[in-house]
Amino acid sequence: MSGGTTEAYIVDALRTPIGKKNGALAAEHPIDLGAHVIRESIRRTGLDPSVVDDVIFGCVDAIGGQAGNIARLAWLAAGYPEAVPGVTVDRQCGSSQQAVHFGVQAIKSGTADVVVTGGVQNMSRIPISSAMTVGREFGFDTPTSGSEGWTQRYGDEEVSQFRGAEMIAEKWGLSREELERWALRSHERAAAAIAEGRFEREIAPYGDVRVDQGPRETSLEKMASLQPLVEGGRLTAAVASQISDGASAVTLASAEAVERYGLTPRARVHHISARGDDPLLMLTAPIPATRYALEKTGMSIDDIDLVEINEAFAPVVLAWIDELGVDPGKVNVNGGAIALGHPLGATGTKLMTTLLHELERTGGRWGLQTICEGGGTANVTILERV
């Protein structure tokens, strides 16, 4: 292992195409989806798999085919050495972004030189909140139900991402039309990116599946006809992220490993952090998390060339843009999760893959990524293209 503090570099980033609910990837085992991106990353970098120090993957609802430490199982299913360990992370929607952060910390501490990070989720076979559904069999209606400490602090109010998104729309005065305009922009940008082939370098085709399935032709008129998710609310399915299947991987290496193995560094991980906010609003943490990251680095939001912020719901992005004073023209320039999908545990490294490739395509230097997460937390990563 390398000694002392070192830089952590991204030497590869890729993803599967993202399948829609019950779509082209629905029948695939999550382990095999994870194995696919691991195998492709090892092939693309030319690394000897035996030099990998750890495999860190994000996954939410780790039950059934996603249980049993899927990071380890996917590595073994890829056919690689049993001596290499693996660990699975659950920071909700930011799980694989956190996997990158743990990998970076290992490299910077000198305890690892090469770490394969990533994430996987098959939401068609294992629906969102499946772990909570199983929990009901053991007397837990929600993770917090019956907790005296939680009730004393937050009462017995409903904790729901849908309610949180509605509260954000109300607090920031976002109209339904504003939300739907952002959603339409997401689809239009995604469709343009696909038509121009912007995703081709970052996608590792899965069999015959080569293109993201989420983007669709829509209009403000179609969106206006949908019923709200919450009675009397402003949100509809049109302004929410899509249920999706997929996997993604980001391979990290120390400066020493880059030199030793002849790797090509593509980005330096400049900053990693995570912060929290109100767990009832739940989805606002990207705002304080971004402010914290900028303060820690001495950077301004104007220094950032491109942003990837997960479109869990349109109000999450619009409130963040408003609070940070960000130019919308550099946010999710190839569309976001409303159009392209949100395969939970895979989304963090999926967004990082897209961010890196778009920085390379446009010649930008700095990229910032943030994701809202269950429990009211958010990760922020700042990359410097090299």
From TrEMBL:
Annotated Pfam families: Thiolase_C (PF02803), Thiolase_N (PF00108)
Class of the enzyme per the UniProt entry, highest EC level: transferase
UniProt keyword annotation of Transport present: no
Sequence ranges assigned to domain Thiolase N-terminal in this UniProt record: 9-255
Top-rank taxon, per record: Bacteria
SUPFAM superfamilies recorded: Thiolase-like
Sample GO molecular function, one term: acetyl-CoA C-acetyltransferase activity
Domain called Thiolase C-terminal: residue spans: 264-385
InterPro entries: Thiolase, Thiolase-like, Thiolase_C, Thiolase_CS, Thiolase_N
Active site (record annotation): 93, 342, 372
Keywords from the named record: Acyltransferase, Transferase
Designated name of the protein: Acetyl-CoA C-acetyltransferase
Family membership: Belongs to the thiolase-like superfamily. Thiolase family.
This enzyme's EC code(s): 2.3.1.9
